[in-house]
Amino acid sequence: MEAGVKMLTSLQFHHVVTANALLLLEAQNNPTLQAACANASLVLPDSAGVSWAAFTLHGARLPRLPGIDFAFALCGQA
């Protein structure tokens, strides 16, 4: 959430990706989508599957944060 608040006050445009398993699978075969994910200001784990994969593959504990919850919380900060 801290990163989102910083983006709100930066006076720059930002691209946020809410990544779920289907999006990540599609990005493997779609270079444009892969670039959009790689160049995003912030990528959120939008599904339990993405959070699970991050922990299983990299030991990273990323709590699931659906995009709508992120947007709602940012509206409360604005």
Please, could you describe this protein's structure?
Helices cover 59% and strands 10% of the residues. With 78 residues, it is mostly helical. A two-stranded parallel ribbon has the order 1-2. It is globular, with a radius of gyration of 13 Å.
What would the keywords be for this entry?
78 residues; mainly alpha; 2 strands; two-stranded parallel ribbon; globular
Count up the helices.
5
Total number of β-strand segments?
Answer: 2
In whole angstroms, the N-to-C terminal distance is 13 Å
**Spatial strand order of the main sheet:** 1-2
What portion of the residues fall into strands of 2 or more residues?
5-15%
Portion in helices: 55-70%
Low-confidence stretches: none
Overall spatial form: globular
Our Rg estimate from Cα atoms comes to: 13 Å
Order of helices and strands: HEHHEHH
Biggest pleated-sheet summary: 2 strands, parallel
Would you kindly provide a brief summary of this structure?
This protein has 78 residues and is mainly α.
Layout: helices, strands, pairs:
Blueprint: H1 2-8, E1 16-19, H2 21-29, H3 31-38, E2 42-45, H4 48-58, H5 67-77
Parallel strand pairs: 1-2
Helix pairs in contact: 2-3
